[in-house]
Amino acid sequence: MALEKVEGIIGSNTYNKDRNEYTVKVEEETQVSTLVLSAATGEVLTISKEPVQVVPSEEPDLERIITRNEAIRLAKKTLSGEVQDDEFVETVDGGYYLIEIENDETDQEATIQIHAVRGDTMTVEWDN
Q1: I need a surface site. Which of 61, 79, 111, 119 has the fewest CB within 10 A?
Q2: Which letter does DSSP use for residue 54 in this model?
Q3: What pLDDT digit, counting tens, does each position of 24-73 carry?
Q4: Which residues contact 111 (CB under 8 A, 6 or more apart)?
């Protein structure tokens, strides 16, 4: 329901039992939106948005054309679920992202390697 109101990737969600509400953080390239939803009705109670501070990276971005969030979105085409970890690895051909995803409903875990220039899924390693 949160993604119907704002675009991006769900970074986290928490449930407040006392208030019977979910707090969902949705990450975009330039901002993070925090939505509070009623657990009883699904109604969005509040939306707040904060800009993302861009920290200069020491990694050269000369050839990288996809962002971390784009790599996560592409990895979630292989396995939807919660991102456990993500890492950028620099290589001579532009690098790749390693995205670890866990799906609690299906009890599946995978590490998906996404090429940072082409956006291709390079490998998928399923955890038992």
Answers
A1: 61
A2: P
A3: 988 888 888 999 999 999 888 999 888 876 655 555 544 557 999 999 99
A4: 98, 99, 100, 101, 124, 125, 127
